[in-house]
Fold:
Amino acid sequence: MTSPSQRLAPDGGSSGLGPLAGVTVIALEQAVSAPMCTRSLADFGARVIKVEHPDGGDFARYYDDVVLGQAAHFVWVNRGKESVTLDLKSPAGVDLLHRLLSRADVLVSNLAPGAAARLGLAPADLAARHPDLIAVEIDGFGAGGPLSHKRAYDLLVQAESGVCAVTGTADAPAKPGPPVADVTTGLYAALSILAALCGRGRGAAHGNTISVSLFDTMAEMMGYHLTYARHTGIDQRPLGMSSPAVAPYGAYPTADGRTVVLGTTNDREWRRLATDILERPDLAADERLRTNPGRVRHRGEIDDAIAAWCLRHDLARIQKIADDAGIGNSRYHRPTEVLDHPQLTERDRWRSIETPAGPIPSLLPPAILAGFEPPMGPVPGLGAHTDAVLTELGCTATEIEALRDAGVIGSRR
Structure:
């Protein structure tokens, strides 16, 4: 176990009060999945050192330039981190990486297939050289299968795992808008790290090597659909803004040109919707519609009745009636409408964070811990912390300049 004197010091910009204060994470990451994992750890107070190539760094920095000249994906999942540039194709760069790892608690990577092994970061290598390091590798398809060698991006994995087939409509399958494969895999990786840290604190004897694949995560997300298909032999038809599992449950146009979403989750709610809202006791008494399986089979008839009723009322009136009847409902919103959503603004969910181009709004992480304010640290410029971190490792100013001259850490930033 590395002694406290050998560890990297907590970042001076963090509160030092988070549940992960004192935990240092080294990130070899690109795009969204691993950055989401490490940003989640940073939100709980961990120190995250993002190691990037001097020539451009994380390619997600350049997906677009809409955020004060910066990429929306990058600023979303990279707050609260430090950026260190190292050329890991050079022996000096690899040596510096291992010096970082010797003082860290966790390594998170999502490199291309085979890249970690080429850098000497395969599980066996890490176990031999850094036995106390929790090493987490996020990959596309998991080891040992016919697709293990393939690159995997969010859309590719969603298509391969069946997610696109249950999204959209039967004649227009779709990728869910958010990068759900990347995000959920990153969160599963963060959960695994927390489990490993918790186990270590309790003295549990578990291995320090963790692997999480996008494909396995999406297969888990498909749990209901796969279970249904296995036991029926049926591929359920995607229903757009509805669910093949529940009826009524969907989106309906209103008299004022808006869209309301109404849903029921049990038979009692259905009877209230039919009698108290639609004023159709005949539907509530219809034996065909008494249980959810029957309502699913006769979804079209129910949807027609609800749609006709909604077209006679404005959105606000529909929501008032539904709330009074205890029926779940919501409004269909576009992203521009969510920016000023009162549920966010009145609960003070936005914060200002620093970026190299200036401050921007950023949402607080979803989990609210009593007595803890997430650090919401800056989005780092490429290599902005290189000199400071190398100084922590014991490098002198002369040595740092020599590394810069040799191209190991890139130009001065």
User: Anything to note?
Assistant: Confidence is low (pLDDT under 50) at residues 1-5, 12-16. The first strand starts at residue 24 and ends at 28. DSSP finds 18 helices and 13 strands in the chain.
